[in-house]
Amino acid sequence: MSAPVQRLTGRTVAAELGGHPPRFRLGDGAEAVTVVVKSGAADPGAIPAEAAGLRWLAVPGGPPVPEVLGADDEWLSSTWIPPGRPTADAAGELGRRLTVLHAAGAQAFGAPPPGGPASAWIGHAGMRNVPHDGPWGEWFVQDRVLPYLRIARDRGDLDPVGAAAIDRVCERIDRLVGPDEPPARLHGDLWSGNVLWSGGAAWLIDPAAHGGHRESDLAMLDLFGLPHLEQVLAGYAEAAADAGTPLAEGWRERVPLHQLFPLLVHTVLFGGGYAGQAVAAARRLT
To answer: Which tens digits make up the pLDDT trace of 122-133?
Structure first.
């Protein structure tokens, strides 16, 4: 597998280090750098989407992300981030840096990163990234909730009663979304597994980047249990207020709304166990 690394980076592989994804050392001594390589053969378009997303998320003052050293339609080579331990200080700093990332903005809700494909991915599920001219709630229903709701319902992972509960959220979306906000620059798949703690900082990996609502990234952090989550949220709230863009009143009550999308994605990918969580989130809103 060293051949694609050398082709993408233009450097000679000095050692194969193993691991998953596999790691390689390029060069020796002070010039050495460790990289990882990923294949997207199973999900056509995933590698161009991830590479474009990582580049787009590399905002000065935002959370650190791996550097893309080379990418093509099938392979991505990026810098390796050595594992570390989560700390409360790093969590607070992550929250502050997320405000900078979100404030960098996007062309529109649903807009892909520059150079990113419209047919992108979140995990191993397809995801449509097409700019939307209307309000966030309208786009969220059309491109983030209904496509996965239909798949789950047609496959039988959601029964008619559960599907109807989510449909009611879609019908009431204008009353649930809170105040209008401009499109934010989102990581888009910001669950705890995509936050790497290393060197006293929190790094973001494996994005499903697009233009969306900043509350969506925060709700995703809350979905599967991030260490020191309250410090992240406190750092975010403080920095957002200092920047003159405080989180809108009621944002915590809207967490289930923003979690509907990832829960439906997990239902599509992993089956009906997540369907119950999606329905429960919908019922908390209605």
So the answer is: 999 999 999 999
